[in-house]
Automatic annotation (TrEMBL):
This is Flagellar biosynthetic protein FliR. Belongs to the FliR/MopE/SpaR family. It is a multi-pass membrane protein. Role in flagellar biosynthesis. It holds the Pfam family Bac_export_1. GO terms for biological process: bacterial-type flagellum assembly; protein targeting. It comes from Neobacillus rhizophilus.
Length: 260
């Protein structure tokens, strides 16, 4: 039967799509049921399998086929990870804010990432996820992995894995994520720094005031006040962040497929 001969090609496509969902924002969250991820990966792989031309991959379980299977897995993981790097900037911004506001000792377990998350970082992460979904950003991410098959054929290797272009691009993306994280955290962190400065001056001039009680309550109030005032600028930066995320995903696809 002819369809049995096409199963190895389908498995290669499924490897890239399923690995993409392991690391890509929104879909990688643990709150999304595993059967949903598996089913979505399977049906997207079916769509790609129908859309692309049949590949000339080696026979199943041969040495060349195993190499292609590893390559497809790395491509899927790389595309998802390059998109999630910038998304992690939101969590980093919340961590910096909570460290300055005194909330870092109240970190709670985040079931989405499986790690301890600060309160402000958790709030900003939820707002960013809702904002991404409202902009149909998840559609752009799915379109990115589907578009990758046009640039990176299943049967072709990726020389960019060994010539340093991917690592250089990832370092550049890391740098951009830190810059965006500092921009997201700057209004609240700078304001709380001024509050600490004022409290330090008050402590020197009026030693009888209990700054441990007054200062903590004051910093909490200022934190939430500035967070509310800076909320419009937060969504403006989110728009820039998601545009950068989509552009980084496109650049990663072009880098991987440049010498295919």
């Amino acid at each position: 039967m002819d369809w049995l001969n096409q199963i190895p090609d389908f498995l290669l496509i499924l490897a890239r799509v399923s690995c993409f969902f392991i690391t890509v924002p929104v879909f990688m969250m643990r709150t999304i049921p595993a059967p949903f991820k598996i089913g979505l990966s399977f049906f997207l792989a079916v769509i790609v399998f129908i859309s692309v031309e049949p590949s000339h991959a080696p026979l199943a379980f041969s040495g060349g086929y195993i190499v292609l299977l590893i390559k497809e897995s790395l491509v899927g993981l790389g595309l998802g990870f390059i998109a999630s790097i910038l998304f992690y900037a939101i969590q980093l911004a919340g961590t910096l804010i909570d460290l300055q506001a005194g909330f870092s000792m109240g970190a709670v377990f985040d079931p989405q990432s499986g790690t301890n998350a600060n309160l402000t970082g958790r709030l900003k992460n939820v707002l960013a996820t809702l904002f991404l979904l409202s902009m149909n950003g998840h559609h752009l991410l799915l379109q990115g992995v589907l578009e990758s098959y046009r640039w990176i054929p299943v049967e072709a290797l990726v020389p960019a894995f060994t010539d340093g272009r991917i690592s250089t691009f990832m370092l550049e993306t890391f740098k951009n994520s830190f810059v965006i994280a500092f921009l997201l955290a700057a209004p609240i962190v700078f304001t709380l720094f001024l509050v600490d400065l004022v409290l330090g001056i008050i402590g020197k001039t009026s030693p009888q005031i209990n700054l441990m009680v007054v200062g903590f309550s004051l910093k909490i109030g200022v934190h939430f006040l500035v967070l509310l005032i800076a909320l419009p600028s937060f969504f403006l930066l989110l728009n820039t962040l998601f545009s950068e995320m989509v552009e980084s995903l496109s650049q990663m696809i072009r880098i991987m497929g440049a010498s295919s």
